[in-house]
Amino acid sequence: HELTARVAYVNFDGSKALAASETIPLHQKLPEDFISQICGETISAAQKIVDWLTEES
Q1: Best CA proximity match to 44, nearest among 17, 14, 9, 5
Q2: Domain coordinates in residue numbering, the chain
Q3: Is the predicted pLDDT of residue 43 greater than 70, yes or no?
């Protein structure tokens, strides 16, 4: 059996993300924790799906 799904998650404030990124100079990389600060709930939800799909039954 095969399960195929396409999932899109956009559970973050885009305006907040852009505003936060604009405080960082263009020549500088985004901090390592930038994505987790801005998109933490999305990352958590994706990890829960991965955990569910990979759990042994």
Answers
A1: 9
A2: 14-54
A3: yes
- Per residue in 9-22, pLDDT tens? 788 899 999 999 99
**Helix 14-22 vs helix 34-54: crossing angle, to nearest 10:** 130
Q: Write the DSSP symbol of residue 29.
A: P
Q: Identity (one letter) of the amino acid at 31?
A: P
Name residue, tokens 């059996």.
1
User: What's the pTM?
Assistant: 0.67
Q: What sign results for the dihedral spanned by CA atoms 26, 30, 36, 37?
A: negative
> Tokens at residue 33, please?
């924790």
DSSP state at residue 31 = P
Q: What is the mean pLDDT of the chain?
A: 90
Q: How far is CA 37 from CA 16, 19, 29, 47, 52, in A?
A: 11, 13, 15, 15, 24
